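Quick start: read one record
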Amino acid sequence: MVGYDPALSENAVTVPIFPASTYVFPTAADGELQFARAYHLPRDDGQQPGLIYARLNNPNLEIFETKMAAIEEGAACAAVFPSGMSAITTAILATLGPNSRVLYTDPVYGGTYFFLRFLGERFGITAVPVDTSQIDLVERALSDATEPFDMILIETPANPTLSMTNIRRVTELAKEYCGDKQTLVMVDNTFLGPVFLRPFECGADLVAYSATKFIGGHSDLIAGVILAKDPKLMSLIKDYRTILGGTVSPFTAWLLTRSLATLWPRMLWQAANAEKVARALAADHPKVERVLYPGLLRPEDGEAYETYQQQCTGPGSLISFYLRDDSWDAAQRFLNSLETWHLAVSLGGVESLVEHPRRMTHSDMTIEDLDSCGITDGLIRLSVGTEDPADLISDLEQALDKV
């Protein structure tokens, strides 16, 4: 924390909100110095800038970033953004230039897919999708590449199939096949972190979050976070954030700080509920074809099970499953019959949500890409909240009876 003076809080138990757009400099020379630090001008002494203007920094933003970096094992610093997509795209634009190459997890969140597939090429970025849960496919993509990759973007568990990627093995392969080129490894840790997965311990350079989800946890804000091991890398990302205008309001930063206090108990509670729901769905239900949930992985699942055991400390609270009737009509009957579950996109809040990836969160993918990833009309995604799991299971069963 740089510009914020804790004495301003006096004896408050919780952090106050500072709804200021600009801050007073004690002298003109100090104002010159702060801008030199912010924009790396000749007078820059290498120190972080103090409070200048809320688009650059504000006390609540600095408080949250300091706390977020402290709880993410291996992180040196954090930057908060107005959304998860703002965090991911700003980090990509800040670290990659024209003619850059990105290898990314297939499938991946629909927004990330759309940026890499359709918008990234406008910035000279070539994106290559690979099922990173299959290490042999990752190695083949790296070894067959005519040019080394500048970044590998991993989403694990993948959205919405929950496939597991071995982060450590991917980073080792990147070093082996990309030679002297520094290939950045960024991990979207939204589904499991920071409670159940610590990507920096597995070799990641950057960790991304949609803080709207578990970090915010109450479905009342939109935000994103990037964390880095290297302060110089983060400085570059923050430069882009400043100029692109991707800073959260003091109130949003305050809400995020509030939510960090309950992050661990919420995620543990939700994961405990999700295990009960997943086991109920997997108990040979006649309307359910297959359940996808890390907590159900067994040794016979091979690489996925080993990856989960090695790098995760818990299964999280996202579940996907396939209806036996793999049709949009069957999916609509099921979704429209639910009463306790909320039919809404997003995840990680204290309320349980259900959505249809093919027609909703991943609808911007091409039909060919949806089919190749197994995102069919029969695939349903659940985000388990803190309600009574018996009520959640009962509601799923009565809705399945309508299919």
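The mean pLDDT is 96.
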